[in-house]
Design goal:
Layout (H helix, E strand, L loop, with lengths): L12 H7 L4 H6 L11 H8 L3 H13 L4 H6 L2 H30 L8 H34 L8 H7 L8 H10 L6 H42 L1
Helix pairs in contact: 6-7, 6-10
The site of one fe (ii) ion has 5 residues, from helix 7 and helix 10.
């Protein structure tokens, strides 16, 4: 069994990647430039203008599945909002178009009956994810900003939690069609697309976990605190 590691600011950034390469998309969303050499997490974050404590909170949460409670109570939730907004941009402007292009390239011309449905399912998923992200950008993120500035608001974190669904769920129908019905004599490209889809699903689930298990408790604590002081 792999022992869960807890990274600190002095660890090398290359160690993070070698420990778990599935953390690479998170490094990309912090816009950390490559060419790490033997630089520490602290020095790479400092060079890229990233708050090292936010970086460690996110990376250690993804690795362990548990947020560090001390960081939750000391960090500004707007730093998490910035990270989440960058993640939305990454999915919408890079990841989703990239998978769509690979999917188009993998379609077999002998399947003209089923090909439009496959692209249709994918486009429906992207529409749903886009609406999900826009809702957060128009409601949740401005609310957190207003809360931190002490402005009153009709919105609260309970409203968000009640309607927050799992955006990745809508990829399962597409996966099922491909896995169960998509016979092809040259499957390599479609296998690659499946790997992309599974990775994307996992990535969206982690994104959602950061919202539910990092941002939500941070905001709840601030709401409670403001109630007590009123
Ligand atoms: Fe989000
Ligand atoms: Fe979300």
């Amino acid at each position: 069994m792999k022992i869960t590691r807890k990274f600190t600011a002095d660890d090398s950034i290359v160690d993070v990647i070698e420990y778990d390469y599935t953390l690479l998309p998170f490094l990309s969303r912090f816009s950390l430039p490559l060419g790490f050499g033997n630089k520490s997490i602290a020095s790479v974050c400092e060079g890229a203008g990233v708050d090292v404590n936010v970086f460690l909170l996110i990376i250690n949460f993804i690795v362990s599945g548990h947020p560090d409670n001390d960081s939750l109570s000391t960090l500004n939730p707007l730093t998490i909002v910035d990270f989440l907004k960058n993640s939305h941009d990454y999915f919408l402007s890079y990841k989703f178009p990239h998978i769509r292009q690979n999917l188009l390239n993998a379609l077999d011309l002998s399947h003209e009956d089923i090909n439009p449905a496959i692209i249709g399912f994918y486009d429906d998923f992207v529409d749903k994810a886009t609406r999900h992200f826009r809702y957060e950008e128009r409601n949740l993120f401005p609310y957190v900003k207003a809360l931190m500035e002490g402005h009153p608001s009709k919105y609260n974190i309970k409203i968000f939690c009640r309607q927050h669904d799992e955006v990745a769920d809508s990829l399962s129908e597409l996966k099922n069609i491909i896995l169960n019905f998509y016979t092809t004599s040259v499957p390599n490209k479609m296998y690659d697309v499946l790997v992309d889809i599974y990775n994307c699903e996992e990535d969206l689930d982690s994104h959602s976990d950061i919202e539910n298990h990092i941002l939500v408790p941070m905001v709840e604590a601030i709401e409670l605190n403001q109630c007590d002081t009123q």
